Amino acid sequence: MNPNLSRIRHLPFSLLSCLSKPTIATKPFQRHVSTNQIPPPTPFVPDSKTFLALIGRGLSQHTAKLPTWESLFTLSSEQLRKVGVEPARARRYLLWWRDKFRQGRYGIGGDLRNVQDSVAHVRVVELPREPSQKSPAGPDAVRRVVLNLSPSHPAEDSTIRQLRPVKGLKVQGAHTIVGPFVQPVEGTGGSVATIRVQEGMWEQRRNQKIDGGERRKVQVRRKRKLEEMKKARS
């Protein structure tokens, strides 16, 4: 008699049932995103219409299907399909941008706080340079940064030192603001500019397919070569 078999017979019934019935770990399908995962809108992105316009790829055509901020950030991929967000790659792209926005990873202008009628003003401000071990700063040393300030905000206000420079913008030369979607204000020499919400500002361009893409490249090129050979014979 096999000694191992006799040992199994003396095992408790609960253990024998576990051995006889394999267990499979399953993950519940998430049909709806928790409202706790809804990020707050920002002054530059106050509603779903603006969000869809910013990320581009024609998703602004689905504004009526996602009229509220909550619906924009809670509908699952299956629910987006049911309301008519097509094709599937458009849903994947929307979900990808939703996750980025939740993490605070915005496109240009997303971190701007002083916004009025979808337009933000930025300007070059000189701030005292903080001394460091590598480069001790003198009393006249300054650094130039681009800040999001309203036109009426006084440049001498001491509170501006607490503001963070605008991401994606920099100062070129003495006082010229450079960066994507920057519109210099006339008569300021480039030291004051505006950033306006535009369709596709945050759009991630799809890779351009050459000769039908990787899956069809060989077939397309072979067909083209055969056609060239036929033309050469005729």
Structure write-up:
- With 234 residues, the chain is an alpha+beta fold.
- 29% of the residues lie in helices and 14% in strands.
- The protein is built from seven helices and seven strands.
- The protein has helices at 3-9, 13-20, 48-55, 69-74, 77-83, 88-102, 217-233; strands at 115-116, 119-128, 142-148, 170-172, 176-178, 183-184, 192-196.
- Strands 1, 2, 3, 6 and 7 form a five-stranded antiparallel β-sheet that branches.
What does the secondary structure layout of this molecule look like, with pairings?
Layout: H1 3-9, H2 13-20, H3 48-55, H4 69-74, H5 77-83, H6 88-102, E1 115-116, E2 119-128, E3 142-148, E4 170-172, E5 176-178, E6 183-184, E7 192-196, H7 217-233
Antiparallel strand pairs: 1-2, 2-3, 2-7, 4-5, 6-7
Bin the helical content: 25-40%
Summarize the main sheet: 5 strands, antiparallel
Individual helix count:
7
Given the C-alpha coordinates, what overall shape results?
extended
In angstroms, what is the radius of gyration?
29 Å
| Poorly predicted ranges | 20-30
Distance N to C terminus: 85 Å
- Report the average pLDDT across residues: 82
Q: What's this model, at a glance?
A:
The chain is an alpha+beta fold and 234 residues long. It contains seven helices and seven strands; from the N terminus they run H-H-H-H-H-H-E-E-E-E-E-E-E-H.
Properties at a glance:
234 residues; alpha+beta; 5-stranded antiparallel beta sheet; two-stranded antiparallel ribbon; 7 helices
